[in-house]
Amino acid sequence: MEDLLKNVDLEKRDRILNSAMKEFSKNTFQKASTNKIVEDAGISKGLLFHYFGNKEKLYKYLEFFTFKVMTDEINNELDWNNQDILVRLKEISMIKLKVFQKYPYLTDFSLLLFKDSTVEEIMHKYPDFPLKLYGQVYTHNIDYSLFKKDLDVEKALNIIKWTMEKFSDEFRKDLELGVTKFDNQSVEKEIFKYIDMLKECFYR
């Protein structure tokens, strides 16, 4: 999909995105108000439709942006030279938290998009899902010598991947049900606990 806001001032772009994600995450598509979006974003309705054409295209752009922003940040910020997969996963979790701080309604909008879906289902449902990047995280430039001798590394990597996917799925469900609230520090702490346990299990 074309980036419809690529030539828009970054500060204005972020206002539009945050306002739109807020409105769509609090209402159904039909009830979401473009009047409310432009009011919160501080732009005219004419300008909003100049960028997107209609409400449906705005929503589709938000879907596209949800994947694009994470893909771009991980590609730009992750140290691909670090060959420790568990350190890499910690870095990715921190990158994601920084994105959520910048776009506070991205979590709520993502919950709406991915409701009742597993990570695997999401990968197949949305063509913009960065499948290649997702695979590279677990395969590109990994130092397999860090793993215990005689360990089946392929199976260990699968367990690591499944653990992180399950953590994401369960956390997303808890958010949907109101069992927990999104808090950067607590999420980071919980992720690091799992990663440290995986390190004890699989590393020398």
UniProtKB/TrEMBL annotation:
Pfam families cross-referenced by the UniProt entry: TetR_N
HTH tetR-type domain: residues covered: 10-70
A GO term, aspect molecular function: DNA binding
Gene3D superfamilies: Homeodomain-like (1.10.10.60), Tetracycline Repressor, domain 2 (1.10.357.10)
Keyword terms of this UniProt record: DNA-binding
Domain of life assignment: Bacteria
Regions crossing the membrane: none
The keyword Iron belongs to this UniProt entry's keyword annotation: no
Residue ranges of the annotated DNA-binding region, renumbered to this chain: 33-52
Identification of the protein by name: TetR family transcriptional regulator
Organism this protein belongs to: Planococcus donghaensis
